[in-house]
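To whoever is covering the structure queue this week,

Two jobs came back overnight. Logging them here so there's a record in the thread.

Job A:
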Amino acid sequence: MSVVETVGQATIDGLAYLGELTILTGRSLRALIVGPFQGQRVRGQRAVHQAMAAGVGAVPILSLISFFIGVILALQAAYELRKLGAIALVARAVAITVTRELAPLITAIVVIGRSGSAFAAEIGSMKVNEEIDALETMALDPIEFLVAPKLIAMVLMLPCLTTWADFMGVLGGASFGVSVAGFTLGSYIQATLHSLVFRDIVTGLIKSVMFGMVITAVGCQEGLSTGLGAEQVGRSTTSAVVKSIFLVVAVDLVFTMLFYFTTSQ
């Protein structure tokens, strides 16, 4: 195949995959919103279980990573700002960078590694063991039974985790500011609050909701498309992680551009 044919085929395959993700997400949202009015159950217990696994289980590692990211940002910002005599702006640089960009992105990557891969492995194993077919035989919709609880859990937990990552990132920056840059804890927190506006926090939370939908859709889609054999489960899990990270970064770019152009006018 020529380069043009290769690029064209890859583009077609990518658009088809995005269409599959959109259909899966739409069916899941329909099961959550319209389903209860049509006599379908909302699997609340399964959603709570997924929320505990994806959300509460991720808090320790996310706290550590976010704290370190805050320290690293403060170090890098202080290195350049000291040359300009503006070391007092460290708190502003850390707060805006963490809340707008890094907290939702780091949270999404951590959740992809913990939960997105788990979704693909769980559903892929069920597909290989013909448990998906068994659900359909019992007149249970696999989307309503498996995907919808994961979607609602992720959409609810990602903003919560992002808020916690915001706090830990700012705390990491504060540890550097207090120990090295001459801040007191109170002055650092005050500088952080003065530098943030409501839009900064909302931007990160909106991104986190979209990231949760992407992670769930990709993980479940890869699981549902798993071929036969244990090896295929491993491939689906790997594919889910790689595709989720790529799509999360792409969605992050789209929303960052959207927020930039809507707020700069």
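Job B:
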Amino acid sequence: MMEYTASDFTADIAAADYVCRFRDAERFMALCRECPSYGRSWGCPPFGFDTSALLSQYDRVYLVATKITPGESGAAIDAAQELIRPERVRVEQMLLDMECRYGGRAFSYVGECLYCGGAPCERICGRRCLHPDKVRPSLEAFGFDISKTLLELFGIRLLWGHDGRLPEYLVLVMALFHNCPPGAFSGLRVSTD
């Protein structure tokens, strides 16, 4: 496995503020419709419910941005998933645990499902999700602008690879929409276990 370092950054803001400043559902749904996973994964749109109504149930958003820096400069872009996966698993599990403990709704990383072992999603065959307790959509799937979120809330620019090489760093952004009081998670340490 390729060596890397990972750093977590967190923010807890009013949900209404996050929705107002960082959500452009029309723009991002148009981008989602161009993706080959659109309608083929239970973590992807279209959803069978009103996403705005779901978001309006929550007062706050706890965001986690994980910055992953490869140990090897100029690594091949094919190594991206190898670097992302362990960090995604770690933060996603933490958010699912928080969802269970405090209520709310977790949002995970865009990409393939972690829970069906690489098998095609049941949605393709018109069947229910096998892991509805674990599969969560990404913030992008609900129309949130991750580049703007990273820059304005964390001071991190979203970078892209070029010439088949990874950028200087990769970043994951996940969240928990919740109804806990402001600062409820301020003492929480994002686990690295």
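Note for Job B: The chain has one domain: 4-178.

Please reply-all if you pick these up so we don't duplicate work.
Q.
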